[in-house]
What we know:
By secondary structure, the chain is mainly α. The protein is 69% helix and 1% strand. The protein has 19 helices and two strands. A two-stranded antiparallel sheet has the order 1-2. β1 (469-470) and β2 (476-477) form a beta hairpin. It is globular, with a radius of gyration of 24 Å. InterPro entries: Choline_transporter, Na/Glc_symporter_sf, Na/solute_symporter. GO terms for molecular function: choline:sodium symporter activity. It comes from Gouania willdenowi (Blunt-snouted clingfish). The chain crosses the membrane at residues 6-25, 52-74, 86-105, 125-144, 164-185, 192-210, 247-265, 277-299, 334-362, 382-401, 407-430, 442-463, 483-505, 552-570.
Amino acid sequence: MALNVPGLVVMAVFYLLILGTGIWASMRSRKEEKKCPPGDGMEMTLLAGRNINLLVGIFTLTATWVGGGFILGIAEATYNPTLGAVWALMPVPYVLTFFLGGFFFAKPMRENKYVTMMDPFQKKYGNVLATALIFPALVADVLWVARTLVSLGGTMSVILDLSYVYSIVISSVVAIIYTLLGGLYSVAYTDVIQLILIFVSLWVCVPFLLTNPHSVDISLTAYNQTFQAPWVGTVELDEAGKWFDDFMLLALGGLAYQAFYQRILSASTYQQAQVTCFASSAFCLVLGIPSILVGAVAASTDWNSTSYGLPTPYERDQVGSILPIALQYLTPPYISVIGIGAVAAAVMSSMDSALLSSASLFSSNIYKNIIRKQASDREMQWVIRISVVVVGLAGTGLTFLDSSVLVFWLVGVDMSYTIMFPQLVCILFFKVSNGYGATVGFLMGIVLRLMSGEPLIGLPPIIKFPGCRLDAEGKMTQYFPFRTAIMVISLLSILLFSWLMSVVFKKGVLSEKWDIFKIKHGQSSTAKVSNGGNPAKDDPAVVKQLATSQHFFLLVSQRFIILLFVYLFLLF
């Protein structure tokens, strides 16, 4: 296959459009920055001065979630004969993510004027423990960068016949440049262009895929064996635990991402943040449909009648590239180029968010609050820029280790779910939580997760939960909802040990001089953060909101424990 020159021209135009938008947004950011009081420059870069437009906020939040991993991952799961559309979970759990975020997390985070999601940890637990907790969040962001670049590199190499390395490097450089120039302003306004391109490009490709002569009607192959297993897929009773685990992983894991709170905290009010979450959930559902259709068409195709030939993409271990393969061999050339535009836009929209997210955590919580508390705005701008470059390079390097989008997707969100989510719930909604409980919960989550194994990275399980067995691909897999169990165990460990140590010090069992986290002084997680936030007011509405949220999470924990026992009973 020769180099697709027209396609390269189209992609060059697309990249110039995105870069131009980023440069324009950076100039606007500088104008707004000049109006800010001294010392607010970092907040302008990271949070757009907490005055992001509502429509722009909806676009940037949606574009952050609808990335390359989202588009290619859904198509990959739908086409995979061992999975099917019922395992392409991303759109529906994300609705739950945004609704929970809007109802429970937006208000306490926005009203306390935090800069990052780690601010409450730093205020209540201190710098040492907060730094340890930041590490999983930073790793998750680096993996996020990697999975978005993998999706674009695979797509370009298939459709444009452009080297995988060149595809990834060019895309990485463009995203890093405009993120460096304007911070959240550049990221948000380029997201508007990117989301429009994603929506239009994907839906333009769908009619051509559905009417191509090499595929049969997808309604006939949905539940019938044709060229492969039905693309709808099934969830057997002994697989229900794994399906539930994946669903909860995607639904709750996203609530422990800094990129989510960066959009929440950039809103002018918590009400605007809530509206942003609710509106974005609808967009995620709509944007997930084209990828499902692509996977369904690919599963309904006689590949032997195409120029691709046999073996099939599944037999060639190219499931992760099924979307670009379908566009390349089942649509006209000019349509496949439009399709790659959608993937490129999705990749850019997620990658820039991950870059700025990790830069926020390092610059604000580590450099500003620990290393250089007196750092000037100009110095912080350079720290943010260097952080963006470092994370971009790290994520780019990881793309050469694995070509599956789902690997980076699931491993990254896995860390957020099992380690960070229970910590975030406890710090925001349970006053009893303290550094001792957080430490135990953190270690408990890491140890249990490592001992449970992970077939995606070849890590064998030491702890074999009920139902652990070889999957269809011969890999030892946990079919019990073990990640959700680890999350709940971690959450309960935080609360139990926090309460226990609180009693130990308050009753004088141990001397106060041993209280390294100073829990006897009753530090409040809603107090002002060390980098300049305002103290939260004792607003009855806020108190009621927190009480309602606490009751909700307690209720969910109780119901889940009951479900675990029921599931164990059914297994045995």
